[in-house]
Specification:
Length: about 425
């Protein structure tokens, strides 16, 4: 008998399922008999509990399981026969009236939408590129020097200056009252590196060891500490120690200390350039991929299955709770987080996933084995032991699935870029590296 599928609204469908009551009752009886072999009850030996007792205790739950199993299988068979692509889980409800000797259920569900991808030749995409300049290499080497700098005590007569590391005691008060986080002893920071608010940083400059100073400080309105944001405090600071920074020279010894294989300044610069180019490439791929995906979704038409959007929103909420828990937030699993705030992001993800899936299917853009291998090998080059990294990915199905998803997205990106109206733009190195 052909399955009758009723269209309710847009993607929503309904199927009526009927199951012979005799088959359900027979399966319930079979499971209860099997259960009776191991069930325990006071006053009876194991395996000797009367069926009436087993039925009284477990009959309802076993029947619930059997009905769920039978209805689930009936729905799967009906969906397959009707060639339906079901999105999410069906909502099953038992009908008030059923044919004699049968149980009837309504299965309400959504189907995957038809995805219409428009003419990609009219899609507009901005593709960015970036060059690794000598200036970028110089700045990176300067960062490496800072990471390996040493500090030596300044003469007592000298005041604190830019790049010095100072050790201080301080206490802040608002309207004459101390506030939480406003006091510390033997606190260290480096002048001029943005570790402290600018007013605090400027006040300490020029102070000498043993010197104390009181100064006002205006907390910014957007300051992270809400209790003091926008308020003015008076700080008493005493300098305990001043240390001058000493940067290592950029020479062959410095290159050797960094573990550069060719321990020369030229080898250091070449290694830094290679690493920067690798990082730039990954950032460019991510940025251009984002532009392509945005253009692709704009060029596509489809209805979004509510079940998929709700499921994605739930996953985003679970991830948010996990993040709060990792940050040490108390009762993160009970925090009130409105589901609505995740809906726009969930809709974007579902829409993009459906569009990309359709394009991959229709244009055969699946990841090829050689592409997977090449991608893993490229990632591995940024590690000390590339062979171990390659083995780490190749030996795990889940990790390979993650790589496959990235490669498929890259294939989609190249496909769209080959057909869309592409505008090329050279992005300054600093802008690319500081972009979110």
């Amino acid at each position: 008998m052909a399955v009758q599928v009723e269209t309710l609204e847009k993607l929503e469908r309904r199927i009526t399922l009927t199951l012979p009551a005799e088959a359900i009752n027979g399966e319930v009886e079979t499971r209860l008999k099997k259960l009776s072999r191991t069930v325990r009850a006071d006053g009876f030996r194991p395996g000797k509990v009367p069926m009436s007792v087993v039925t009284q205790r477990y009959g309802w739950s076993v029947q619930y399981e059997v009905v769920n199993d039978k209805v689930g299988q009936a729905f799967a068979d009906a969906a397959q026969e009707a060639k339906l692509r079901v999105a999410g889980q069906p909502r099953i409800t038992q009908k008030d009236q059923s044919p004699e000797g049968q149980l009837a259920f309504d299965a309400t569900f959504e189907v995957y939408p038809e995805v219409k991808i428009g003419d990609l030749a009219s899609a507009e995409v901005e593709r960015v590129s970036t060059e690794v300049t000598d200036a970028a290499i110089d700045r990176t080497i300067e960062i490496l020097r800072k990471q390996r700098r040493t500090f030596q005590l300044r003469p007592a007569a000298e005041g604190a200056a830019e790049t010095d590391r100072v050790t201080i005691d301080f206490e802040g008060k608002i309207d004459g009252e101390p506030f939480q986080g406003g006091k510390a002893e033997a606190f260290q920071f480096i002048i001029g590196e943005g570790q402290m608010l600018e007013q605090f940083d400027q006040a300490v400059r020029g102070m000498k060891v043993g010197e104390s100073k009181t100064f006002p400080l205006q907390f910014p309105a957007e300051y992270a500490g809400k209790d003091v944001a926008g308020k003015e405090a008076d700080f008493l600071v005493t300098v305990k120690k001043i240390e001058a920074a000493h940067m290592p020279e950029v020479d062959d010894a410095f290159a050797k200390a960094l573990g550069i294989r060719e321990a020369t300044v030229a080898g250091l610069r070449a290694d830094v350039k290679k690493n920067l180019e690798r990082e730039v490439k990954f950032r460019l791929v991510a940025r251009n991929k984002g532009a392509v995906m945005e253009a692709l979704t704009k060029a596509s038409e489809l209805e979004l299955p509510k079940a998929l959007v709700d499921g994605e929103a739930e996953r985003l909420m679970a991830a948010a709770r996990a993040d709060l828990k990792q940050r040490g937030i108390k009762d993160a699993d009970k925090a009130e987080i409105p589901a609505e705030i995740f809906k726009p992001q969930a809709e974007r993800r579902v829409r993009l996933g459906l569009v990309v899936g359709e394009l991959v299917r229709s244009q055969s853009l699946q990841a090829k084995p050689e592409q997977l291998r090449a991608h893993i090998e490229e990632m591995a080059q940024s590690y000390e032991k590339p062979a171990e990294v390659i083995g780490y990915y190749m030996s795990d199905r889940q990790r390979m699935a993650e790589v496959e998803a990235v490669v498929v997205e890259n294939n989609v990106t190249e496909f769209v870029l080959g057909r869309a109206k592409v505008t090329d733009k050279v992005l300054p190195f600093d802008e690319l590296m500081t972009a979110a």
